[in-house]
TrEMBL record:
InterPro entries: DD-CPase-like, VanY-like_core_dom, VanY/YodJ_core_dom, Zn_M74/Hedgehog-like. This is D-alanyl-D-alanine carboxypeptidase family protein. It comes from Spirulina subsalsa FACHB-351. One of its GO terms (molecular function) is carboxypeptidase activity. Residues 108-238 form the D-alanyl-D-alanine carboxypeptidase-like core domain. The keyword Signal does not apply.
Length: 254
């Protein structure tokens, strides 16, 4: 259509937004001009209808997705969502073939990559006059069964209360073989206590653990709502460990 519209009687009912273009006054010829204008208008309407019919299959005329329906990205996240139990995420139990001892008696073990870095970290701390003491490493689901349900019963704790300090079986980072509880060899009374944060061992870990690819699992006000555990550290020094922990974090409860 052209940029100008003819002024035709009874068009005053058309919304103002559709009549913004400059108006053209009828010239001489009166009825003849009105008739010509009407024919032009009908032709334009017919052309517009044909154009819309031709464009029926285009993206502009196709029905838009229901905003109530989730996008493909949201749907994928919902499909991949990981269920948690009392704030704890599920972890697979490491194979015994992948574990190495980090203590002389062989009682405490970690995955090979984590064990090598832990031993190096312990030696570096000792060279600085700090004694790191491994308290717990890899745990089986069966061992975690006692630590959660057995201790819960002994201490007359509720499930939610127990979950603040111990994961249910199948949901502990210790199953992965990448997590280790660390104490100060010169202050054993602080083992598995928040008071561990006041020791030389904790201060050394804060400043140096990242050099050996260890990080604090549950700092204060952590997103999972787990009680602050300054003694609980995990290894994130290879792709397997990164995927184990950070993929789980991204899929934590919404």
């Amino acid at each position: 259509m052209g940029q100008e519209k003819l002024k035709i009687p009874n068009w005053d009912e058309i919304p103002v937004a559709q009549r913004e273009n400059q108006r053209v006054e009828p010239k001489r010829g009166g009825v003849l001009w009105l008739l010509v204008g009407g024919l032009v208008g009908l032709g334009a309407i017919a052309a517009l209808a044909f154009y819309l019919f031709e464009m029926e299959g285009s993206p502009l005329t196709q029905s838009q997705p229901d905003p109530a329906e989730p996008s493909s990205e949201v749907a994928e996240r919902q499909e991949l969502a990981v269920e948690n139990v009392l704030g704890h995420l599920p972890y697979q139990e490491a194979s015994p073939d992948d574990l190495e001892p980090i203590t002389r008696d062989g009682r405490i073990r970690l995955r090979r990559s984590a064990a090598q870095q832990y031993r190096a970290m312990e030696a570096a701390a000792r060279a600085d006059g700090v004694i790191l003491s491994a308290i717990s490493g890899f745990r089986t689901v069966e061992e975690q069964q006692y630590l959660f349900f057995g201790v819960k019963q002994q201490r007359n704790q509720g499930a939610a209360q127990r979950a603040e300090v111990s994961a249910p079986p199948g949901y502990s980072e210790h199953h992965t073989g990448y997590a280790v509880d660390i104490g100060d060899g010169r202050a054993p009374a602080t083992n598995l206590s928040v008071n561990f944060e006041n020791t030389a061992a904790f201060r050394w870990l804060e400043q140096n653990a990242s050099r050996f690819s260890f990080e604090l699992s549950f700092p204060q006000d952590n997103p999972q709502g787990i009680a602050y555990e300054p003694w609980h550290w995990r290894f994130v020094g290879d792709i397997e460990s990164l995927e184990t922990f950070y993929r789980a974090q991204n899929l934590r409860r919404e």
